[in-house]
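COMPLEX REQUEST
Ligand: magnesium ion
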Amino acid sequence: MRENKNKECAKNFIYQIIENDLVSGKCTLVRTRFPPEPNGYLHIGHAKSICLNFGLAQDYKGYCNLRFDDTNPTNKHAKYIEAIKKDINWLGFQWNGTVRYSSDYTEILYLYAIKLIKKGLAYVDELSKAQIREYRGTLKDPGKNSPYRSRSIQENLFLFNKMKNGMFSEGAACLRAKINMSSSFIVMRDPVLYRIKFIQHHKTGTKWCIYPTYDFTHCISDSLEGITHSLCTLEFQDNRQLYNWILKNIDISVPPRQYEFARLNLKYTVTSKRCLKLLVEKKIVDGWDDPRMPTIAGLRRRGYTASSIREFCHRIGLTKQNNQIEISTLESCIRDELNELAPRVMAVINPVKIIINNLPKDYNEKLSMPNHPYKSEMGTRNVMFTREILIEKSDFRENITNNDQHYKRLVLGGEVRLRNSYVIKAEHIEKNIQGEIIVIYCTCDLKTLNKHPDDRKIRGVIHWVSAIYGISAEFRFYDNLFLVPNPSNCKNFLENINPNSLTVTHGFVESQNIINNANISYQFERIGYFRIDNSCFQSTHPIFHQIVSLRNISNLK
Ligand code: ATP
Ligand code: MG
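STATUS: Structure written out below.
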């Protein structure tokens, strides 16, 4: 029985099925599997399946296998295999035993194919690919039998052997199950079980030139591994008929059961390795781990934590209804986590200089600041306050109109508090020949360190960085990769790329300490949550990725 309540699978319909199976004795040990095809990096949709499959195994003290679906030799595998393993471990899961490959079962699969032929349930067809499609019929019209369908068992055995020995060219023959060409399930209209491909396989080399199809391989692999619950996405619902047919006809007495759930679709992005690969190949993004990508590697580089992704998979739940999830649901998971855990620091992303006239040139004051507004256990840090500091351009206005009455920042002639520091007053400004403000000259009220002045009210607080001690840095802000909520539905999804998905600014962070630890995500006060790019750790001009804004701006738009 279920012992440890794993959030990922609590109370969803799969959990109900498993509970019933355990009560009825249909199953005593839960065994699941995660079966990625190593033709790309894992994305957030895979995370849903990983949390489900590995989560169930953890929950019921069962097993979850990692099995690479590598029966299709056309895709390059090695680098994706390593990346996928890394991502699963990073998400916090470990597979049972060794990594498996469906190609481990090549010999057995072949023997099962022979078994079907011997039972008169499979035949070698010599129709072309196009003819097979034409003979298959449509949802309205039944298919028609191939003229090769009635071959004798002997002839089929002979021809299948010929296929195996490379005596047919690619596409000249295939092995098909003999089921029912007028079945209401199109997948049951004599599906292809084996096709010829003269391609080297990453594991079996050139030993084979016939390769089993996904449908033939998947159910048999599940059965060989003793999988009890084979969980997949809804598009495989009809394939369940074939899954069961194959296992029944190769005489598996306790077959695994397939159950389907809705795939994860995220708005304004694509969750398909094929589409993501195109973005990489066309250099629309800067690799699989570009922080705009919905890949696990991209999210990690951006600063998402494994726990925030698991939390997301928990929040979206598991149903049989296809829908599209708002990106803000994902964002709120990391925001909630970082709100609790991220140390607060200051950074200025679009700086303008302030000179505080009433401080001496070499003024240096160490100011102690809390690292978190309500978690005193996170301690304090020292930040140097100097005569020259930097603030955001947007935090200063030369003059305000009646419409700007709510503007609570620095205005020429007005006062503002510097975060965790003093109240300053803007006295006059210096502009360059283009008319841009280059220096704001201020005075500082030295009686106001973390204290309200008695005689007047100061309306705003702004953040700042010492112009002497601040470290220059690049800041990268991300927006959706696509302009439309459902790019996968467009004829050409590449036409809807958001040209402004990346915005770069140059500014300063408060001190060297911030770039000394690549593993910490920070809240840059009043801006958002940021993480240093791993490659820039201790660099002289580090890059910070904005993980997420402070608030859900999509609600405000
Ligand atoms: P893709 O189109 O991205 O390649 P796929 O289904 O072909 O997706 P696989 O590598 O075969 O990718 O997927 C491994 C497992 O992850 C499968 O069990 C699949 O059902 C599941 N999976 C893939 N995409 C999603 C998704 N968007 N939501 C939930 N599960 C998914
Ligand atoms: Mg696939």
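REMARKS: Residues 35-37, 45-46, 48-49, 69, 232-233, 263-264, 271-274 surround adenosine-5'-triphosphate (ligand 1) (CB under 6 Å). DSSP finds 13 helices and 29 strands in the chain.
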